[in-house]
Amino acid sequence: MHELRKDPLLGRWVAVLNNSKPPSGYSLSHENESKGDCLFCSGRESELPAEIMSIPNQGPDRASKKWWTRVVPSLSPVFRVEGDLGRRGEGMYDKMNSVGATEIIVESPDHDVRPEDIGLDQMARVLITYRDRIADLEKDPRLRYTLIYKNSGISSGAVFSHPISHLVATPVIPKRVKEELDGAKQYFAYKERCIFCDFISEELRFGGRVIIETRNFVAFCPYASKFPFEFWILPKKHSCAFQDISIEEIEDMALILSAVLKKLRTVFNGVSFNYFIHSAPNRIPRKDHWHTLGEDFHWHLEVMPRLIRTSGFEWGSGFYISPTSPEEAAKYLREA
């Protein structure tokens, strides 16, 4: 079991691994595994930890591809479901055990496929897998938050070249997410409206930062983007929890996510990127007999192209510098 330590100054939690890595353990070169070495490819299922869930392939090619997506435990998990939290103090500091979940979502049985090229049906299956894993882990009372994220390309921090996403469930709400929750709550308290719903209304009114709009979603570059060509995808219907997404919305989201990632590739061929889903914390009451709760937060997906390196100024100040305006970035992506 690893250790979670709380920073008493900033209030954030840091996972400290008990098998500390020596300097020789850090590789400054970036080389992904080759297809021949890949454990996530179809046919090597027995070489991985026991499967958590999968979407089986019922088609005519099921003999060679038994599944469409599958979820397995991480090969080097930081958070584990076994054990208890063991909250305790150490002098002025607070710590606990790293209870949680660290999972790998294998997005396709095929090795050499980019996320924007897996097709709408397969992208929808990936989103269904995201939804089902969040819904399942939400039942564990020890877990407060579940984050789905993807690293694509060497500069994104990706270790494997097979198309995978990651899931991490934690016993605390991460600071970055808490800042969003608090900001949305303050806005709602002042205006009695969801800030994300207002984002959608304003971006559709202005139009200059919108990349693409579908029946259920809008993709746009945020007004105060931290990074160049950053974009968000928001559902038009207010919903605080991603796991409440409908099948119709999943199909529409598969379309808009695939479309915008293809546009990004057209503008920057081979660019690395990260994306992640920010949803409400686990077990937030969403409906009662009288009204809908979770009114101040709105789930969304954020995409961060890795075009620049963060400098000491950004790290030291938290003040970001974006060399391309979101209006210009949206124009390039919209026209791609």
Descriptive account of the structure:
This protein starts with a strand and ends with a helix. The strands form two sheets. Strands 3-4-7-9-8-13-14-12-11-10 form a ten-stranded antiparallel sheet, sandwiched between helices. Helices cover 25% and strands 22% of the residues. It is α+β, with helices and mostly antiparallel strands. The protein is built from six helices and 14 strands. Residues 288-292 have low confidence and may be disordered. A hairpin with a 6-residue loop joins strand 1 and strand 2.
- Helices and strands, in order, run as EEEEEEEHEEHHEEEHEEHH
Helix and strand content put the structural class at alpha+beta
Molecular shape: globular
State the share of residues found in helices, binned by percent: 25-40%
- N-C termini distance: 47 Å
**How many helices?**
6
Report the major sheet.
10 strands, antiparallel
How large is the share of residues in beta strands? 15-25%
Which consecutive residue ranges, at least 5 long each, have pLDDT under 50? 288-292
Query: What's the count of strands?
Result: 14
C-alpha Rg (nearest Å): 20 Å
Mean pLDDT across every amino acid position: 91
Instruction: Give, in spatial order, the strands making up the sheet with the most strands.
Output: 3-4-7-9-8-13-14-12-11-10
Quick structural gist:
This protein has 336 residues and is α+β, with helices and mostly antiparallel strands. It is built from 6 helices and 14 strands.
Which tags fit this structure?
alpha+beta; 336 residues; 25% helix; single chain; 14 strands; 4-stranded antiparallel sheet; 10-stranded antiparallel sheet
